[in-house]
Amino acid sequence: MSELVEFFLRSRNFILFVLLEVVCFYFIINTSNYWSATYFNTANRYAAQVLAWSNAANEYASLRQVNADLALENQRLNARLTQLLQSKPAAPAEYQADSAFADRFKFTVAKVVNNTTQFANNYITIDKGTDDGIRPGMGVISPTGVVGKVKVCNRHFSVITSILHSEFLVSSKLTKADEIGSAKWDGVDPHLMKLDAISRYKSVAKGDSVVTSEFNSTFPPGVLVGRVRTVGVQPNMTFHDITLDLATNFSNLSFVYVVENSLKAEQEQLEKQIETDK
């Protein structure tokens, strides 16, 4: 306490000067319309700037929640879109799928907690596991395209075999040519993928869309795999040499959707039974 008193005593002249300045400033503002208006406008301008900075900081801090909310909304829209597409395919017009088939795909949103792109065989870790209904073999997509397939799970986490894996194949279809092939990563560029088994006699152009085909039980049909980047033909080869720009950007992958096909086990069991009976 004595030190505080000594400080005020040592600084009494300066403190008196500051108090007199404040009093003078107060009288100037209150006795002059010009200075009163100037003070009011200046104070409002700085207050507005501080408020803008504060709002910007709050918006930035809430981006994580905004992204999570958007992921949940995309999950709902994905489920609805898939249901509509499966209930009424493009052809034939008289075909109508039953409700169990149309509703077979369910989506669970998950956050990416680890992701590699620099290896020949890459994996992704997400924050959902068996407690959330995740099981090995389920497909995984992003808001923009195919991501991979669940490999192993524990209660709270799952590891996904990325599409950027030397042994990962995706049954894919060129939308314009209506031709089925296999998309596979060549282990070089994480933004590019090869599309194999497309006949050289089919018309393929740069920019054509490639989506998941109907001939797999892991992914819903119509999920974007990529777009044609280059088209070539090797001498004496039957197929095009096609390179795709991947639809999913794995360098900034934040949220994914795990796809459950409720009829997958039933379908695979029946197909295995046919193979066994041969």
UniProtKB/TrEMBL annotation:
GO terms for biological process: regulation of cell shape. Residues 60-87 form a coiled coil. GO terms for cellular component: plasma membrane. Keywords: Cell shape, Coiled coil, Membrane, Transmembrane, Transmembrane helix. It holds the Pfam family MreC. Belongs to the MreC family. This is Cell shape-determining protein MreC. It comes from Spirosoma montaniterrae.
